[in-house]
């Protein structure tokens, strides 16, 4: 479709693989390494899981859009991973799914160089990776001379491409001559090919750099690219342009012949939404039946899927609790990749990172994923990468408070809202009823460069007067009625999103929270941490600053003091 | 050593295994299931990782304390895990380490019942678990009839015990007849042994319950334990007492013959610290050289290991960056399990959960583990379990801010301090110099039922006047000097721990932060989220509410406005 390359900081290693892949004549290569999408060292294991998402994106689009006479979607996803990535649990989660889905166009190079920061991998990593990957349903190839065995690597790439029903791991045994410039990293120095002469943990001095250059036969100045190297690489520039032109011509043909499909595919490639898409979102009135926001969420997802060709996603084995099934579609599986319900299994971390890969594959993909809100703890590193690399993943997080029944404190989020409100470039949305849920989805879909977490309830909530999809301000409580009966003037404000509120004008903020009103009470079934910003020095924050407990929702709310009576009492103290 | 049982909610399954283990005549069994330590459904995968920690604890103590004539430490660790646990990456991390360490006394039953919440495991989990575990270095046994093949299970337990150099996975193929009472869970109903007759996702009604009881030949009232069942189980009560008496006699012998070792072992078993242990902590004066708190941390760890027989731990492949090596000791490895430096590899999540297992093995174990602070994101679920099940793990988290060099925003914590300050039952400690680091360790060691996170710097920090191990109040800034020069009265307060401050008396809090002083400025190289509680409505919080960037520490601090000048300017606005 297009060429997407992400350079690796393991430059020597990555460049070698990259060159050989380019040489292999791939029309299009998507390429990731253990580096992340912002150009720095990435958190280990994220890259391979992103790659699984990219390969899923290709397989899905190919199944939906390819025609016998025009295979418009057709590219490989390459990934380089190291020992550290292999040790991280996220890579096992994602690779288990890649095997399950039979992602035949995913080719991963495992740079098996036996080196970790703390020393030889022997000290902590002696498992048989080949056997594990065979268990995960991968095709495994072993390249024994990763340093100079170019023909071996070329043959491995060829073999990998011939295997269509399984992803391939090319385990490349290499001897490291990596140099790190950072003063807290180790460096390695080999005098001869494959023979480790010296190893130390200190920074390399000028003397050692010189000796290493000599050993490697590299007589050039720093940052100098010799002409022959430049020549070898630069022919890929016109080659790439030619490949792009070829693809564009192919797409023009496709567009003529398959108008409808072409428009849909184009929307996924460009990220342009169809005009008026948001009108499909359901609306509610105070007469609409009370419902849990997780159910309202499902109504929104099933409405949106009709107008968003790139919407797809699923849950980490809680689809029927998170209410995330798209009823018009079947499961994305090895033999039904055109479907849109993704079954992630109990693999939250892998799920988040795979969704990052999907989101980054094409701007019009709108991936969503789901679990209980408390289990964002399992996938937090992937969520942070969504925020950092601007992947607009929608996190559908249900069971958003202690009101979830008897599963108890391991399943009850307390600090999670606060913890995400503190995370940059992420929208933490907690809608209170139908219209706010629809509004939250509108915001989430529009924010393609900012991930959203929707915290949704398991309990039924009434539809409130004054809420709207567009509005932010809303009224939402019972306690106010009590106080009003006593002649107090009370305003109830529902804070769907702290981030969106912060982004409003000062005048708007003042209109919602007038500064002369210092008698403020916040109530949230979660940690009070952070609420002092809203209630001010003279206000009071009601919440839960301990772990939850195992009890029915009504009982636990009462036990923890989350009742209209408690709010009334707190408010009266402030008047 | 002692019997520690944690009942499973998969009662039928767990009880069956448990009974057979008891029957096998184990002197001591430590038993975990996929449930956590507080009696509820645990987050999946934590249990098996805890079990690895428990088995590590046994292997370590056995190596240190057993004598040819008295093997005082000698027990198996049993664990039951399900498909969900197998899918979670944490279990792969922990099981990879168990294989690496050759934890021969770890025996895990994998209840391979092909059922997940969303349906048959076929939809998301088709990997070959046997092969994967063989790759991880485990001995794998397959019990084909897990429902009634008791002899098969007995034989498997016997075989597992005969394998001393590898952990064993007993894959038990079972057909489920699990009943869940919660209305959002599925239930399964089999009419005959092994034959699935009906499956639905709704709650079971009285009629179905009756039919199931009939099918299973269970004529009793709810909660009734028939006499023969009671008889079968109750003989374990006197048996257990006899085993305990036997062990006590053995220990009495041990104590007489190996006085010194017995005292040490006793301290680990009881958790009683030797009097005056805290005197070993280093102290500093303003004349002590400026140093990074990560280095000061290492001085503390190496001092503590001399007086805490249960101190052991390590890093997730960053020992030389986190400064966590205990210099008097070698590596805990398969053949050197008596050593105390644990090499976790790049497996943060498994590391945290393994440390929970170590902590819960014996109250005198003081496990610590380390990585960069930002990578707490990878292990947050395990840290939450530390807090929830009161395991006093010490989390040594270095590189605590944007001041860590060129690794960039993926390695720079922003929201992490706030996110942990919001977590219940956890001490978030951020010492500012030598004495505060020692004080933080004192607090962490004393809090055996509350985990601690120490956020430590990579940069050198000066030792400040007025700090002490015992004190909380301290002075810590440059900006204050500027303001004082201009005749302002300024107090600089270092907030080592918000939680400990909260626990102080109102009078103390007022003495540190007098309420009449409303001109307050907070400064922290992290999210400002939550600081409004401290600075009040009229104060100002200086921090970083965006992701970091790649630059040397000095440059990035300046760029982000974290300078004495910025603090002076903010303060002046408030006067």
Largest interface, counted by CB within 8 Å of the partner chain's CB: A-B, 102 and 102 residues
Strand content of chain A: 5-15%
On the 0 to 100 scale, the average pLDDT of chain A is 85
Which regions of chain A contain 5 or more consecutive residues with pLDDT less than 50?
1-11, 31-41, 178-198, 470-474
Separate helix tally of chain A: 22
Biggest sheet record of chain A: 7 strands, parallel
Number of strands of chain A: 21
What's the CATH architecture of the largest domain in chain A?
A: 3-Layer(aba) Sandwich
The rough form of chain A would be described as globular
Q: From the alpha-carbon coordinates, what is the Rg of chain A to the nearest angstrom? A: 27 Å
What name does the CATH topology of the largest domain in chain A carry?
Rossmann fold
Q: What is the H level of CATH, i.e. the homologous superfamily of the largest domain in chain A?
A: Thiamin diphosphate (ThDP)-binding fold, Pyr/PP domains
The portion of residues assigned to helices of chain A is 25-40%
Q: Classify the secondary structure makeup of chain A into a structural class.
A: alpha/beta
Distance between the termini of chain A: 64 Å
What's the number of domains of chain A?
A: 3
User: Which CATH first-tier class of the largest domain in chain A would you pick?
Assistant: Alpha Beta
